[in-house]
Amino acid sequence: MQPVEIFRGDSPVVLGVPHSGTFVPAEIEARLNAIGRKLADTDWHVDRLYSGLLPGATMVRANFHRYVIDANRDPEGVSLYPGQNTTTLCPTTDFDGRPIYLEGKEPAEAEIKERRLAWHAPYHSALKAELERVKARHGIAILYDCHSIRSVVPFLFEGTLPDFNTGTNNGKTCAPEIEAMVSDRTKTAEGYTSVLNGRFKGGWTTRHYGRPGEGFHAIQMELAQKTHLATEDTPFAYDTAKAEKLRLHLKDILTALETLAPSLAEQDKKLQGANND
């Protein structure tokens, strides 16, 4: 199993998909308990949800499950949300705080390092290369990081999660025009709820690659799974009717990002020229 798949396009938009993969090596799967083997914390069908929405977009997809290693966590293990419940680089609990390994079978530090080199590093090497390729072609790269989660997860957040959860680390990871455009479209999507920089402000990927002063813009979209799944529990089936309704709004967002890119690239070019004077 290759750690990552790349579907290369010529758009300035790159789709990151770190959590839709379900591959778990046999030696790891054998140590998971019944809760862990359920793989409930997958971003179910997110790659399918975004596929074909923007024909020229590049997609970088992790094939491995987040229980192997979380491609959206700091490789040094630093918490994204200090003081709040979250899962770690190599999770040992699920989103409900329940152990996912058989007792005493959790990965030690040496194994975590091995997993980081075998799985986490190749994904980010591929993502970095695609962003740099796109930036060289267009003068700008826009990373749209694709995620989903159950709408009710008391261990991680109170109440019911909005349908659209846009994260820019409080405006630090992209141009304000990008943040405003995406936020405005989610706010006006009829029948859906939304929030900007709520519980999910953008994971490590968004924060790491989002350097708007250098022409790299990043934004995370965390979707409540009730927007495109028949049920948020086993068998986590894709609901085509729900998904097609949602895809209209996602397509609108991605198309608008692509349309916005040339003016932002020119803006970035002028700003960098001024800085060099």
Characterise the protein shown here.
This protein has 277 residues and is an alpha/beta fold. The protein has one domain (4-276): Zn-dependent exopeptidases (Aminopeptidase), CATH 3.40.630.40. It is 35% helix and 14% strand. It has helices at residues 26-29, 34-37, 46-50, 109-138, 176-187, 204-209, 240-276; strands at 4-7, 13-17, 58-62, 141-149, 164-167, 194-196, 216-224. Strands 1-3-2-4-7-5-6 form a 7-stranded mixed sheet, sandwiched between helices. Strand 5, helix 5 and strand 6 form a beta-alpha-beta unit. Helix 5 runs antiparallel to helix 7. The longest helix is centred in the C-terminal third of the chain and has 37 residues, at 240-276. The radius of gyration is 18 Å and the shape is globular.
List the helices and strands and how they pair.
Layout lengths: L3 E4 L5 E5 L8 H4 L4 H4 L8 H5 L7 E5 L46 H30 L2 E9 L14 E4 L8 H12 L6 E3 L7 H6 L6 E9 L15 H37 L1
Parallel strand pairs: 2-3, 2-4, 4-7, 5-6
Antiparallel strand pairs: 1-3, 5-7
Helix pairs in contact: 5-7
Which segments are poorly predicted (pLDDT under 50) over 5 or more consecutive residues? Answer: none
Main beta-sheet strand count, sense and barrel state: 7 strands, mixed
CATH topology: Aminopeptidase
For the termini, the CA-CA separation is: 49 Å
Give the class from helix and strand content and strand pairing: alpha/beta
Strand content: 5-15%
Helix content: 25-40%
Shape: globular
The total number of structural domains is 1
Please identify which CATH superfamily we are dealing with.
Zn-dependent exopeptidases
Succession of helices and strands: EEHHHEHEEHEHEH
- Summed up, the helix count is 7
Mean pLDDT: 95
Q: Identify the CATH class.
A: Alpha Beta
Strand order, sheet with most strands: 1-3-2-4-7-5-6
The beta-strand count equals 7
* Second-tier CATH architecture: 3-Layer(aba) Sandwich
